[in-house]
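ok, trying the design again with the full structure, not the truncated one.
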């Protein structure tokens, strides 16, 4: 079962890296214009002006780039140190998931950006299940 959960982490980390990279590439395009209202309406009831759109493009790109980097890190740890059951690998993934989820989701809920909070919850479940499933292998 350990190998199943390790591969699960590898796939989720890889998916996060790919989705983050795609996010950077589509921000500011008509494709992203279909998604951005889910995030925008908490701050801009009307359509944002051009200067705000430029800021959003930068802010969303930085967020997606961070997601890509974090996902790649999770995938590399899952492929290497986690595979050899090094305790620090489990704790590194678990701590980063806990910190990211609590900070990001807390601020998202505070600002009423419920779409981001829901996305965070999905990533939490996707990462917590294999961590819980492998807890006994590391302790």
């Amino acid at each position: 079962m350990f190998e199943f959960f390790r591969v699960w982490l590898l796939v989720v980390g890889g998916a996060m890296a790919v989705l983050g990279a795609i996010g950077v590439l589509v921000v500011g395009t008509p494709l992203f214009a279909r998604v951005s209202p889910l995030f925008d309406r908490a701050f801009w009831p009307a359509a944002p002006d051009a200067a705000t759109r430029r800021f959003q493009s930068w802010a969303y790109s930085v967020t997606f780039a961070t997601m890509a980097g974090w996902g790649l890190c999770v995938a590399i740890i899952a492929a290497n140190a986690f595979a050899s059951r090094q305790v620090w690998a489990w704790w590194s993934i678990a701590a980063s998931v806990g910190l990211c989820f609590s900070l990001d989701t807390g601020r998202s809920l505070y600002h009423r950006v419920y779409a981001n909070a829901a996305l965070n919850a999905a990533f939490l479940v996707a990462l917590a299940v294999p961590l819980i499933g492998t807890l006994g292998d590391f302790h």
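Keeping the full-length input from now on. Residues 2-138 form one domain.
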